[in-house]
Amino acid sequence: MSLNIPAQDVAIEFRNVVAGYGDFMILNRLNMRARRGAITLLIGPNGAGKSTVLKTLFGLLRVREGSVLLEGQDITGAAPKDLLVRHGIAFVPQGRNLFGQLTVHQNLELGGITLGMKTTHERIPEVLRRFPRVQERLHSQASALSGGEQKQLEIARAMLLRPKVLLIDEPSIGLSPLVVADVFRLLRELTAQGTTVLMVEQNVKSALKISDEAIALESGRQVLHKQADELLADPHIERLFLGGAHVAAPAAAGA
Ligand SMILES: Nc1ncnc2c1ncn2[C@@H]1O[C@H](COP(=O)(O)OP(=O)(O)OP(=O)(O)O)[C@@H](O)[C@H]1O
Prior knowledge:
This is ABC transporter ATP-binding protein. Keywords: Amino-acid transport, ATP-binding, Cell membrane, Membrane, Nucleotide-binding, Transport. Belongs to the ABC transporter superfamily. Pfam families: ABC_tran. By secondary structure, the chain is of the alpha/beta class. The chain folds into 2 domains: 1-88 and 163-255, 3-Layer(aba) Sandwich (Rossmann fold), CATH 3.40.50; 97-162, no CATH class. The chain is 33% helix and 25% strand. It has 10 helices and 10 strands. The chain has helices at 50-57, 80-85, 104-111, 117-128, 132-136, 147-159, 177-192, 204-210, 228-232, 238-242, and strands at 10-21, 24-35, 39-43, 65-70, 73-74, 89-92, 165-169, 196-200, 213-218, 221-227. A 6-stranded mixed β-sheet has the order 6-7-8-3-9-10, with helices on both faces. The chain has a 4-stranded antiparallel β-sheet with strand order 2-1-4-5, covered by helices on one side. The protein binds adenosine-5'-triphosphate. Adenosine-5'-triphosphate binds next to α1.
């Protein structure tokens, strides 16, 4: 089951993608499409291959078969640096990914290293306007920031490159619900400006509330692709993250 996205609105497409670690394949002929300018949430049980989708898209895992397309262009086999610089795909992985000993400003400078210092310095104030908490801590050591501020800094650093697509893996880990709400709000703002977001998040119900669409994976295949609000209203929603999303819901009594 899949939502029908007109070809010109498809930002990301996986066509029959096989990818994995060593001899063990995690994505098993995965077909999926994510809409341009939308937040698409990847859900599914542990080990379904959600993070593997992001890593494959960012060129960290080799595509063994099939192809990956960005706005209709074949990007299969491209290196992470090219995906970032030439194709505008940014990746914010799980956990902490900052240079803790450096200041917030220095982390931003490093994020813009491929742009050159002049452009980076022009863009830093522009990006920081959307991240007031990060701006306040500009000259602090990155490791001194709270978990939420660090995650915001990672997103700010990715936004310096004005990516078309932001891949974000489990942004809520270790953050309080209020801070998570802040991070989610920020992602919403980014899509309002045309960025496409593909997110993996265990906090499924909160994430669905700010997502447009959701794709459920099981054993490296898409088993469902629906509007986020439709899923939220589904009384059997738990099956999506426990597995069994493809099993038809029991018919309501009298239906
Ligand atoms: N570096 C690695 N080397 C070998 N196997 C790996 C590696 N990373 C992940 N795997 C395995 O690949 C499978 C899919 O992992 P992936 O992280 O994509 O799952 P996921 O759907 O994101 O689930 P989770 O919610 O558990 O992170 C898992 O069985 C995992 O053990």
